[in-house]
Amino acid sequence: MKRTNRDVPDSDNDMNRLEQVLKNALARREAPDGFADRVLARASERVSRQQSAPQASLLRIFTQPLVRWAALVAFATAMIVGVHLHNLRRERRRRGSRQAASDAGPADRRQ
């Protein structure tokens, strides 16, 4: 079977077409009327929103890893201390009820 020119892809022609498509896609174009004004208005709108929402900036402090770790350690410490205090109070109540029961004696228990 003999090959003809139609069987072989024309790589030069394909590359020229690709180059032309890229040139057209990447060609410099003028911005539409009012584009710069819309961009500047949107930017100033963002700035005003950020200034009116200070709580968002306060939460931004937790984006730093050291602050996150410090907050985690503080939370864990508070939880451990809270559980320990709860157990101490429960134990004191148990001891108090045992003491009251032993002080009452057998005569008071019968009543």
Write the layout of secondary structure elements.
Layout: H1 11-25, H2 35-52, H3 54-59, H4 65-110
Task: Give an account of the 3D structure.
It is elongated and about 110 Å long. With 111 residues, the protein is mainly α. It has a domain at 36-106. The chain has helices at residues 11-25, 35-52, 54-59, 65-110.
In brief:
This protein has 111 residues and is mainly α.
Principal-axes geometry comes out as elongated
Record field, number of beta strands: 0
Let me know the average pLDDT. Answer: 82
User: By helix and strand content, what is the structural category?
Assistant: mainly alpha
What is the distance, rounded to the nearest whole angstrom, between the alpha carbons of the first and last residues? Answer: 119 Å
Uncertain segments: none
Query: Number of helix segments?
Result: 4
Based on CA atoms alone, the radius of gyration comes out at 39 Å
- Give the topology string: H per helix, E per strand: HHHH
| Major β-sheet profile | none
Helix content: over 70%
**What percentage of the residues does DSSP assign to strands (E)?**
under 5%
Oligomer: single chain
Give short descriptive properties of this protein.
111 residues, mainly alpha, 4 helices, 77% helix
